[in-house]
Amino acid sequence: MGNEKPITDPEKVSAEDLPDTRAMQDEFTRSFLKSTEEVEEGYYSFVSGIDRYEMNFPKSGIIGEKGYSKDEGFEQLSIGIESSSYNIGITSEFISHLKKDNLETNISLLGSIAEDVDFQKIDNDMTDLYYGKFNREDNYGYLAYVQNTEDPGGILISYYIQCTETNDSCEDKSKENEFLKWLKSFKFNEKGTTGDES
After folding, report:
1. Which tops the pLDDT comparison, 77 or 176?
2. Given a cut of 50, is residue 144 above it in pLDDT?
3. 3-state SS class at 17
4. Measured on CA atoms in the order 18, 23, 29, 34, is the torsion positive or negative?
5. Which is nearest to 175 in space by CA: 144, 128, 141?
6. C-alpha separations of 14 from 25, 37, 165 in Å
7. In whole angstroms, what separates CA 127 from the centre of its chain?
8. Chain mean pLDDT for the chain
9. Distance CA 128, CA 16 (A)
10. CA-to-CA distance for 181 and 160, rounded, in angstroms?
11. Considering only 76-85, 111-120, 133-142, which range has the smallest mean pLDDT?
12. 118-122: which pairs have CB atoms within 8 A and are 24 or more residues apart?
């Protein structure tokens, strides 16, 4: 009796026992999360709706249901994160046919803002990561591209930070470190990549 494991599947945990976090309290967001237990402090484990990739998901974030779309080889989602001094808006777009030898073309899919961004590469096990910072009048943030190195498939990421308080602490180095740590959590699932057209 005492060896029974606690239920951690968010779909099976009763409403009153769910963690009091934005991610877990939002029904649509919760449907993407694997466990009510944090995979590391401040983050839950997320699996994409077409099961192509996983990542760490911030417990203070929610996925916009109206902006979500998917089909067999495509998935787009928007994440909103609220804080006392800043808000973060993230758009993530998975496209199954993107290949590593078309890097410049793939990055151009991030839009015209990418033309002014200096991208750096980070090696990260089975993914190649590219990211760069941008600054605008009312916000700043990062653009990133995550490439599957084993199979076709890539993820385009726009990460916007809007300061809600006018002080220097909103734009600091810790946010870049936090962004990069989150970016390195992306990993592709093997299933689903076979059978994609070249």
Report:
1. 77
2. yes
3. helix
4. negative
5. 141
6. 11, 14, 37
7. 14
8. 87
9. 41
10. 16
11. 133-142
12. 119/143, 119/145, 122/180, 122/183, 122/184
> pLDDT tens-digit profile of 171-188?
676 788 899 999 999 999
% helix, strand, coil for the chain, step of 5: 20, 35, 45
pTM (two decimals): 0.88
Amino acid at 147: Q
Cβ contact 39:23 at 8 Å: no
Question: Which tokens hold the place of 73?
Answer: 């080889």
| Higher pLDDT pick, 82 / 46 | 46
Q: How confident is the model at residue 198 (pLDDT cuts 50, 70, 90)?
A: very low
Read off the tokens for 32: 């993407």
Number of Cβ within 10 Å of residue 93's Cβ equals 17
Q: Confidence band (pLDDT; 50, 70, 90) for 7?
A: low
Residue (of 92, 84, 75) closest to 160 by Cα position:
92
Contact between 145 and 166 under an 8 Å Cβ cutoff? The reply is no
Per the DSSP assignment, residues forming a β-bridge with 43 are 40, 58
